[in-house]
Amino acid sequence: MEIENTSNNEEHFRKEYRVSWVGYFKFIAVNFVLSFIGLSIVTSILTEVLKPLVDKEAIILLFMIAMIAILILGIKNTKSKILIIDQDGVWKYSGIFPWNRGRNGISWEFIENAAYYAGFIPWATKSYTVIIRGGYRDLNEITVKYIKNGDDAVGFINDYSRKLRRSSR
User: Fold this and answer.
1) 112 SS3 class
2) Which of 11, 13, 66, 84 is deepest in the core (most CB within 10 A)?
3) pLDDT digits (tens, 9 = 90+) for 79-102
């Protein structure tokens, strides 16, 4: 016995929007500056305090290993942020560790509107902060920074949301 698809109005789609290079650049630049500040602190203060126990080169090596680990984890965490739009709603996926990995979202019937922050830098880099607001603004809001072509995502979300509201009348 075959099952027929009786609904011709069903739309199945999935759009993914990821973090642009600006998000990675900002994280790497901040990490680079903090590494130099941290390295100067480590070499001046900690080497004097730990001089009897460990030599200066070992402290610097441990500090550099820690900074490289932070850099790698930060890049992986930035890469894990994805804005997904599908037939059920809009979702934000993020997190690299099991205890912070997850999905947060708003289904189409509760989406009020979507917006993005505009400015010269976001316009020039096509990297926008996207905000999706639900019907209950304080409780139901998704914000994702540095989304590549986030203006297109906002346009699609608002158009599709309007289309659903019109069809439900």
Assistant:
1) strand
2) 84
3) 999 999 999 999 999 989 888 888
Task: In whole angstroms, give the CA distance from residue 106 to residue 31.
Answer: 33
Report residue 6: phi and psi, to 5°: -85, -15
Six-digit token string for 13: 């789609």
Amino acid at 136: Y
Record the tokens describing residue 94, joined without a space: 């993020």
18, 84 contact by CB (below 8 A): no
Lowest pLDDT segment from 15-24, 53-62, 74-83, 144-153 = 53-62
Residues 57-67 as b/e (b if ≥16 CB within 10 A, e otherwise) read: eebeeebeeeb
Pull the structure tokens for residue 169.
């009348």
Q: Which two tokens stand for residue 101?
A: 């990995």
Contact 153, 142 (CB under 8 A): no
Edge-first strand listing for the sheet containing 141-148: 111-116, 127-134, 141-148
Res. 113: pLDDT tops 80: yes
